[in-house]
Every structure is written in C-alpha cells, then in structure tokens.
Amino acid sequence: MDEIAEDDNWLNASFLNCQNCQVALYRVDHSGFHDCHFLYCDSCAICAEVDFYDPVYAEINRSLVTDAGKSKYRLIMDAIEERLKPCDCGGKFLANAARRCYSCAAVVLQDTPDVDLYPALFGVDPDEHEITEQEEQAAEEFQAKFVRTEDLWKP
Ligand SMILES: [Zn+2]
Ligand SMILES: [Zn+2]
After folding, report:
1. pTM of this prediction?
2. What pLDDT score was predicted for residue 131?
3. How far is the CA of 17 from the centre of ligand 1 (A)?
C-alpha cells in the first residue's frame, strides 16, 4: 500500500519537523494546481501570493521581452521582486528565499524555489482524517497571517 502512495506522490509531498522548534510542517512542490506564484520573505515566514490574474502581474508578463541570457521565469521573477512592497518585517519577497518555519522563523529549506512550506495540517488527507472545525480555523489563521494576497505592489 505504501508503494502505491509513493507512486501517487508526484508533488514530492512530505512531512517534516522544524529542526529548531520541532513543529510539524508539510512541504510540497508548487504545482500547476495553483494559479499563482508564491514569493517568500527573506527574513520571516510570510509569503506574497501573486495571482496569475493580477493586473500588475499581467502587465509585467506582457511587457517582458525574452532575452537569450535568462529564462522567462527568471525575468518575470526579477520583475515581480522589484515591484513587490517589502514585507511588514522589512524583508524582501524573493522567489528563492529560504522557506522558514511559521512558528519560530528558523530556516527550514534552502534553495527550493519550487517548494511551498505549510503547517502539517495542510498535508492531512481528508479521506483519512476528517478536518475538525478547529483545524479549519487554524488553517485560515495561517493564511491570514502568513500569506499576503492584497496590497502587494509598490505604488
Ligand atoms: Zn520552528
Ligand atoms: Zn517578512
């Protein structure tokens, strides 16, 4: 049964613990399921969610001319990083910032621009464990506190 589960695991999802505070975390590849990019603060656990339908993102995407030296992805990320307002903590949102523990802000993953890090709760399989109201609320609180979706851009 385990083998089947592993074959299914095409997003490289796994649970891990913060080495600093031991809180349970969940890492997963940022997949095509998301219509957005996440850029992470370089000094805390907050990330900025840039929706593909965001007008500023659309404008950046349109205005970029591909040059031979850099991938379009990197060009877009450079442009987004330039335009995003700093984090509340004063840090800068970067595509390749270290992924930090939401609980203690210790660095958990480095050089993993395609990986998102969440509280372990986000990795729970609802077929195996019914999400309680309390957990749902905890997930919403995480989103509200650590995922910035509004007021993203510099004027
Ligand atoms: Zn921690
Ligand atoms: Zn920050």
Report:
1. 0.88
2. 87
3. 8
